[in-house]
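Incident review: delayed structure delivery

Summary: a single-chain prediction request sat in the queue longer than the usual turnaround. Root cause was a stuck worker, restarted by the on-call engineer. No data loss occurred. The affected request and its eventual output are reproduced below so the record is complete for anyone auditing the incident later.

Affected input:
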Amino acid sequence: MDRLAGRTALITGAGHGQGAAAARLFASEGAAVAVADIRADAAARVVDEIESAGGRALAIVADVADEADDERMVGETVAAFGGVQILYNNAAILIPGTVEELDLERWTRQFAVNVTGQFLCAKHSVPHLKRDGGVIINTASTAGVVGEAGMAGYCATKGAVVNLTRAMALDYARDGVRVNCICPGWVETGFNDPAIAAMGGDDAVAAALDAYVPMGRQGVAEEIAEVALFLASDASSLMTGSIVAADAGLTAM
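Output delivered after worker restart:
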């Protein structure tokens, strides 16, 4: 349908899971996609999939917690495609633990990737977004709006992303830049493997989903990608500062 025709999307953490699904979907809707990931092989694989389907894509290796990488990532995207109209801050890590169980290194690393990484990507993308008009999509989590036991650091980072989204939306509302946030619930990707292990395995997670999630199931990456497409497209033109739950009803309770 070409809902993103003529636009360039920079997606972090796009070598797998939700980011990869969004990269493929955005490309199918006409966007040129910069597929950024810390793993070169993962980024290259997604680019190959996009190009095989007739789309345009570029693989970029970057650690979003490293400002030099973020500045280079944005620069390579602009050099390849002429600008950036969509920034999808998707890269994140999940390290389970209570405040007693987490050491400072693991606490700090989660903030470096999940919060500082989104700040830095936005910092270096906003000048281009202001020039062309554009969209920032941040990835938070249901853990950013409700607490989850044994996830102290992760909850703290995702709560920060929720309010960072609101602040950025206010800062750039008159500059033609919309900033919104997706809060996924449980999504069936490898990202949740640390949490699954901490909960006791797949059977324990399935029982928890059945007991506590109104729809009784996990989402899949492609469902989150559809939400991201809506926020990236003109269909959401009146939305900024919105925190969008895609969680099978988890936070409705």
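Verification: The longest strand covers residues 177-184.
Action items: add queue-age alerting; document worker restart procedure.
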